[in-house]
Amino acid sequence: MRTPSTPDPADLSAASDPVTTGESVMLDPEQLHPHPANPRETLTAIPQLAATIKALGQLQPVIAYPDPDSGYIIAFGHRRHAALQSIGRKVWCQICPSRSAAETLMAQIVENTHQVGLSAAEEAQGYQQLALMDPTLTAGKIAKMVGRKPDQVKAALASSTLDAKTRTRAATAGADLIQLAAMADFADDPAALDRLTKAVASGTGQFQHELSREHKTREHAAKTEATRKRLASAGTVLLDKLPDRHATPRPALRDLDELYGPEGQRLTAKNHRSCPGHAAYVETRYSYWGSDPVTYYCLDPKKHGHRSRPVTALAADELAHRRTVLANNAAWRAAEPVRQEFITNLCRNRKPPAGAAAYLTRLVAGGNHGLRKFLDSYEAAGKAGAYLGHEIKSHQELAAIADKAGTRLQNVQLAIIAAAIEARMGVNTWRSEYRWDTTEPDWLRYLVGLGYTLSDVEQLVITPKQDERRHAHRPTQPGLDDEAKADTPPADPNSPPANPPKTEPPADSDPAATA
């Protein structure tokens, strides 16, 4: 393909003919020699540039000057020369006057210093314009023309839903094409885009974790809306906001956890549903969502014959601890998909991960409990296969994969390690009270050594000195675990219960969901 800016070789003088200053010639790559003082020591992205030249031709000439002893010396265009040489093409050259070594070096420094590549936003816009100009240009064709990978061009095209201002701001913050495409999923959410842009700008490698949190928040919003519709269709009154328990006078409505029925029975969403005062509040904050986002209320307990029951008030530090637990649990769940994707990519990489065999040997030699559990776990075998891209049902099938792994045997070993350890990790890992077993911290440190960036909550696992508030306070109210509601109402001493039940179901259960 010859573009208008590419000269026709037939119009240029032959390489063997005498040339004069300012003349354009086609030279064999072997006739050109690098400048001995070229400040660019490493020529990068030569294959990509070669691919572009194949598709579009040589768009700019190499600037060279005659050398009496060795043909021609390249003044400007060392990368173009290397790319053309790699594909066996002649080089379009513009002949310039000979300069002193100092003058040439100064000019090279100036040229390379002032070269500014396209930003990710400008590159994405360019690809989108190409696709609009010529609908036959697929992402694969564009990638071949510009020397990019197809997934990078696809990502650039996918970012078209972002407005130009947002795209430019994100690219200025350092976002690449893949990150711009990921941000396009939130084109309708300026607040999320702002958080994602700040994550890129921070330079801490937290973008993927912030992206996962945004997806989790959106998933929770969808579930919340579905829950609200379900409750509304059942005739439940929905509260727009949580009542202020500290208001004066205190609102009449009460959480069902604070009430008994006329016969002394514990009130639940199921047995209170027929009460005219039945109401519910659906929590919208993902970071405080435990196992159930719904809190049920009675709008007027006294009017409907309910009695208050004593509830032990939690101290301020216990309430703060509850909120920290719920927020960190939510953060852990958001970090898990990022970590799992990283592990999967490691296991499926062509190159075995560094140190996998040595790491596995240390675990086996230490009699690690996680590995022993793995040997008896059907689920872990399937998880190891999933890391490798295989759907398997037994350890025998996993062993068969190992037999055929060849040079990728260490990838299989890593999958076994990951499946064994990840099977025992969960929301409790970040606040484990005992560190006699360092399996999880060592595992996360190993992943960091392979290039993984820990989220803030994962960082807590490898922090040597743990914050006392992470696990110093345990719930004092029976029936509540760490996924229970963060706020526990104070007791009402003026209304003692009648015939209190002997046992209580978990406070975070939703009987209505199973009714």
Written description of the protein model:
The chain is built from 19 helices and eleven strands. The protein has helices at residues 46-56, 78-86, 101-114, 120-133, 139-146, 150-158, 164-173, 177-183, 190-202, 207-233, 316-348, 356-365, 369-375, 378-388, 395-403, 409-422, 439-449, 456-462, 511-514; strands at residues 24-27, 32-33, 62-67, 71-76, 91-95, 237-238, 254-255, 259-260, 278-282, 294-298, 307-308. A five-stranded mixed sheet has the order 1-5-3-4-2. The protein has a four-stranded mixed sheet with strand order 6-9-10-7, with helices on one face. Strand 3 (62-67) and strand 4 (71-76) form a beta hairpin. Helix 1 (46-56) packs across helix 2 (78-86), helix 7 (164-173) packs parallel to helix 9 (190-202) and helix 11 (316-348) runs antiparallel to helix 16. The longest helix is centred in the middle third of the chain and has 33 residues, at 316-348. The chain is elongated, with a radius of gyration of 33 Å. The protein starts with 23 loop residues before the first strand and ends with a helix.
